[in-house]
Amino acid sequence: MKKLNRKFYCRNTVIVAKALLGKLLVHKVDNKKIAGRIVETEAYFGKGDPASHASRGVTPRNKVMFEKPGYAYVYFCYGFYNMFNVVTEKEGVPGAVLIRALEPVKGVDFMRKMRKTNDSFNLTNGPGKLTLALKIDLTKNKEDLTGNKLFIADDGKKKYFKIVSSKRIGINVAKDKLLRFYIKGNPFVSKMAKG
DNA sequence: GTACTGATACTCT
DNA sequence: GAGTATCAGTACT
Fold it and tell me: Which residue has the higher pLDDT, A161 or A195?
């Protein structure tokens, strides 16, 4: 299993968003590995993308989007849910990829416990749900994804699949931009994404 | 099956 | 003080 390095993230946000599909998101919790395959992502830029937090310039919250690629940007939203993003582009250029859905791979029991459900299709099929299942919270903001606790790896499997792009979800601006990407036919793609 | 609503707390104006 | 990169539950057809 190959961990993705800084160079992987230091590219155009759309390229990274597509390249992340099929990769494994791994989080070590209490010496246990919790992992899920990324099946759905969304790209967010800075300038020129009104849907992005970074579009209005740097704030204390979105600062990490302007910093080095390969870091986690965890954003708390709607009072309940955290969103997990991966910072992209070179330092000084804002950009991030929102991980919208995972396919559970390792530590499924742990995920069930965290999500309090036995429905394995309902564990990680949404951005708010997957952070709960993997125990990702605001303390993981600015976590270095090239480290050993929280990282993304390529296990070499699932090389061949079809990528579908469509409109982004849950936002009210720039709806016409096709910046959401998912693996065609995968049952773990988020509910809200279908249709 | 689809459509709408409320919960909730953090961040920026 | 208003808005938010969501979800689950309820009320319909």
Answer: A161
Nucleotide of closest approach to A80 (CA, C1'): B8
- Which residue is closest, via its CA, to the C1' of B2? A195
Are A184 and A162 spatial neighbours (Cβ–Cβ below 8 Å)? Answer: yes
- Can you give the pTM of this predicted structure? 0.95
Quickly give A1 CA vs C9 C1' distance in Å: 41
**Quick check: A193 pLDDT over 90?**
no
* Mean pLDDT value across residues A68-76: 97
> Is any atom of nucleic acid chain C found less than 7 Å from the CB of residue A95?
no
